[in-house]
Amino acid sequence: MSPARTRVSPHGPRGRPGTGVVPSRQNGVRVSPYDPRCHSAEGTRSVIPVARCPSALGAMWSPAPLCALGRRRPGPSAPLQPLTRLLQREYRQKTPTRLLQREYEAKTPFCLPQREYREKTPFCLLQKEYEAKTAFCLLQREYRELPLPGQGWGRTQHLPPRRFLSKKPKSKRHPKTFPVLDGHVPAVYQHVFEENLRNSEAVIKRYSELLERVKKGGGEHAILRHTQRNKKVFVRERLRLLLDGIGRICGVWCVFIASDATVKGGTIYPIGVKKQLRAQEIAMENRLLSVHLVDSGGAFLPLQSELFPDKLHGGRIFYNEAIMSAMGIPQVAVVCGSCVAGGAYVPTMAEESVIIDKIGTLFLAGPPLVKAATGEDVSPEDLGGARLHSQVSGCSDHFAPSEEEAYECIRNVVSTLNCEPVPEQDREPDSPLYSPEELLGLAPLGYSCTLPVKLVLSRLVDGSRFQEFKATYGTTLVTGFGHVEGHLVGIVANNGELAHDAALKGSHFVQLCGQRGIPILFLQNTAPQPAGPASISQAEAHSNRLKAQASMMAAVACAAVPKITIVIGGCFGSDSYIMCGRSFSPNFLFLWPNARVGLVDSQHFPTVPPAGDWTGEELELKQLKAKLEEESSAFYSSARLWDDGIILPQDTRKVIAQCLEIMEQKKYQAVSPRPQPIIRM
Asked: Measuring CA to CA, which residue among 570, 565, 555, 535 is closest to residue 652?
């Protein structure tokens, strides 16, 4: 039998659609040119007879072309074609002659009216409308609109279906019918409440003193020189001129990074680099506009090894600026002072910048270095002043005669960003039934002074209403749903030692919030670490507890929803990880002034004998306990950026609501991501 031949049809009407290949006949037998069994080991072709019966119709066309065209995945029942034949077929279909022929045939006078007529028949129109509105098509269309690399269905077929989110105000979508919490402090706890209240008043007094000291910047003399001799506005006054509220411009939440030139001339220290990187991280997570008020002398050279060479040192600021621009996150800058060396890159890499006349200067090396290198005397204005960069270099986009006009210009720029503020709710949310001021007596002095956490919740959630999840199971962890100024949140709060049942309950609840797309609020007050097991039964219980905690830890780490953590008491050991501590990257993390942060609780550290003759080990133990006590305070933690700040207990509800609104704002942005950043030059 001679080898079977295939006839190539330019139209492909009788063969496989779009392939241009028709199965040939020989002695009344149909032969499939795609069947891999037609090829012998030497590469020659043999003919396989195919009987003319219904059972053989499935074998008439091999599934291999389906794999080659991407319509079917290869498997045991669909062996792939040899690479040579696949490339040959693809080449034949894409030759210039074939492409022109296909385009010509599609545009012949006969085909065009015929296609237009068929597409506009009533039956076809109804069929298209029906198919476009089926549930499958709606989901498929939503899948394909995801901004992911690649093309077609293959790029999203591995993703779960997204929920259809409504932009209606929260108060309409979530009726306030949750049970009301009893927030009355029992008389038996009154002495604990008063002891906590005295401690809260003491730590808040210290917090207020430190805050006033920080607000003075570099001191009265430095502020006087900054405002009178240099004719500049103090940094906090600049923010007041720019903002229309707490952290907003034109109703849009923003991240502000402002240099304070009264402290070391605005020079960048290692802790300043860490602070800027954290601000940029918040901006990227929540797609917030970044506003830079630059008045910086660049890096502090004596500490260059701590802020220049490593991955998360100063250069990361400029890397993040480029990445944020490519993500479509706007960045604007005001040159409101001297910007030297690394400080000059921040406004240059911003999408729009404003420079202030006679005040703002921009250069890599200032006049003193020019004098040392070339012997030439040059003024800061001639070297890198506002007119030079506005008219010659193009490093600045707007020229402002004064600081007030510069900040008004920035407000105008923000109004062009096509970012809508979060819509206001249709009605005022219900206030808690109990006074937030009473939270001062519920902030624990130590773990032994902890009161039931539901007393705290009753002063945070709208109307003191809380829908508890598994109320009678694992009671040392409280989980459930509530509203904070109209925003629905899932709440996970410590109420004692995180035991086996409590950890399983927390894992279940966190996964529910992740599946439903509900933000999670963690109220952290971890118990001191228990002593090691003393028997086999205790060891088994300890192991089960560890496994349950590992389950909850994994659930918290993988929950793809916004997370806010408030440390209302202790933050110790591995329990702090389970309750979404800093290592687990919550969107925001705040401390109450009474909070304590450490690997172990210094108050439960091994006791030291009374004063007397001390051995070397006992003295070392006493010093270690004092060190732990100092380093576990909320002020020590916040000064090192282990958190996002200290908040007063009575302000907690307002801060949580603001964070939820900030995280929700990105839903209303119309800025589309771009593959490349905006490049000025």
From this structure: 565
